[in-house]
Structures are given as C-alpha cells and as structure tokens.
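Why this split exists: single-chain examples teach little about how molecules sit against one another. For that reason, every record in the complexes split bundles all components of an assembly together and asks for one structure covering all of them. Below is a record exactly as it appears in the raw files.
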Amino acid sequence: QVQVVESGGGVVRPGRSLRLSCVDSRFSFSSFGMHWVRQAPGKGPEWVASISYDGNKKYYVDSVKGRFTIARDNSKNTLFLQMNSLRVEDTAVYYCAKDRLPHNFYGMDVWGQGTTVTVSS
Amino acid sequence: DIVMTQTPLSLPVTPGETASISCRSSQSLFDGDHGTLDWYLQKPGQSPHLLIYTISYRASGVPDRFSGSGSGTNFTLNINRVEAEDVGVYYCMQRREFPYTFGQGTKLEI
C-alpha cells in the first residue's frame, strides 16, 4: 500500500527555521507531483505548496512565498519543505500528499499522518 | 483565488438516511474536458483522505454509497444509507488553478 511519512516537525521560536521531509519508497516517486498541505489547530486544510514530478514547477500559497521552499530529491524518494522566518500563524500539522496521477497535477490521493510544527515564543 | 463555500457546516443525520453536502465555487471549475473538484473526508484523529475526484469518480475503496455530482460552480456530495463510520468532516477542494483552495468543511454527526 502506498504510504508517505513526514518528519522534521517541532517547536521553534518565531523567525527561526525548520525543514520538513517526506519519504516513500513504494511507488514511482519520481513520476508524481507532490504537495504540502497544513492544518492549523481547529481549522480546515490549507494547501501550502506543490512541486512537479521533475522539480521544474513549484507553486506556493501567497502567505509563504519568499519564506518556504519546496524541493525534492528523486534519487532518495524524498520531498522537502524548507521553512524560514517562521511565524506564529505557521503553527499547524503539515501533511505531505502524493498526486493522484503521474506527470501532471491531478489532486492529492495519498496523505501522510502529518508532522506538527509549533511556532511560539 | 477561487473561493469555495460549503453548506451546511454541520449536518446531523440518522443512520440509514441520506446526507447531502453542497459546495459552490466562485468561478467555474471546468478545465477543458474535466471538472477539477475533489471531496475529502477527515475522520476524527486522522488525516484527510480522498473520497471523490473529478466531481464524480470514487477513489479506490470508497463505498458506492458515496456519490458526487455537479458542474460549473455547483457541486454536491451525497451519502446514501449513512453509517456510523461516516462521521467526520467533509471538505471540497478545487484544483482548477493554484492556489488549491478548500471549503470550510461540513461536520457530519450521527
């Protein structure tokens, strides 16, 4: 069964950085677009960023542009989210999600269990 | 950004009944040949999982009690013969363009 597993969450002060990772070895990772979605406490999901299968296309929600960077290492079946200049409002569970079909963006079909990021002074 | 509006926000139902959730988008979600609207269910304590994609196609393993319909800017998720295991929050999501956006969620309660 296809599964993605996130890691890297934690508690950080405002202005600091964190790097999230997401890994899976049970599907053709390099063929699929990947996404990060977050969910603040008591709120609905918010799409954060997406990256194409080859890493050439990247998209971000406005609130993280210039602060977050999505990247992937297809040789290691790993997705990353580098989060800089973190703010209190970035506090959320961050989910990694795999795209439904290869080579383009078709929405998310497999989600991880999430990793929690808490930004607090 | 495309705004997604779900109604109702809370939906109490009795087992065996039919539940309907509406989702409206601020602009058409028709993308050439396909509608770019998906439905997700987040059960208590779990991550969201895909229920319906491209308006009306059930994801793998989803019972046929779940069905999606709609076009343009108006979409509906129907749940026939509601069961206790269906409780959770249902979200619609548009992927017509980035940023992908979700509805506020509809909490189904038994």
